[in-house]
Amino acid sequence: MTSRKISRNALAHLLMFAMVMVWGTMFVLVKEALVYIEPQWFNAWRMILAFVCLAIVYRSQWRKLTRAAWLAGAMAGACMAAGFFFQA
Q1: What is the pLDDT along the chain (88 residues), one digit of tens a residue?
Q2: How many C-beta neighbours within 10 Å does residue 9 have?
Q3: CA dist., res. 48 & res. 26, Å (int)
């Protein structure tokens, strides 16, 4: 029995298509969500969920973070939050 491998080119195209489908679907989901919740609250909950997920995935790295890393991360997060706030 031979195993058919998918070419790297075909895999790249399939992954790009999947990403476009997810990205496009998100526009519809966000539009529907904004009927029920204010844009700033939506963004806040989205960022909190992202933080919790990343905190769980990278929990072993927390002890290695320096004060400078925390400050840089807080500044980057504040800039990102401001961007989302003013865009919404």
Answers
A1: 556 788 999 999 999 999 999 989 988 888 888 899 998 898 889 889 988 999 999 999 988 999 999 999 999 989 988 888 888 7
A2: 8
A3: 18
Residues 40 and 83: their CA atoms lie apart, in Å, by 11
Q: Is the dihedral of CA 70, 72, 75, 81 positive or negative?
A: negative
Q: Enter the tokens of residue 70.
A: 């925390």
> What's the token pair of residue 1?
């029995």
Burial pattern 50-84, b for ≥16 Cβ within 10 A else e, equals: eeeeeeeeeeeeeeeeeeeeeeeeeeeeeeeeeeb
Q: Which of 80, 15, 82 is nearest to 50 (CA)?
A: 80
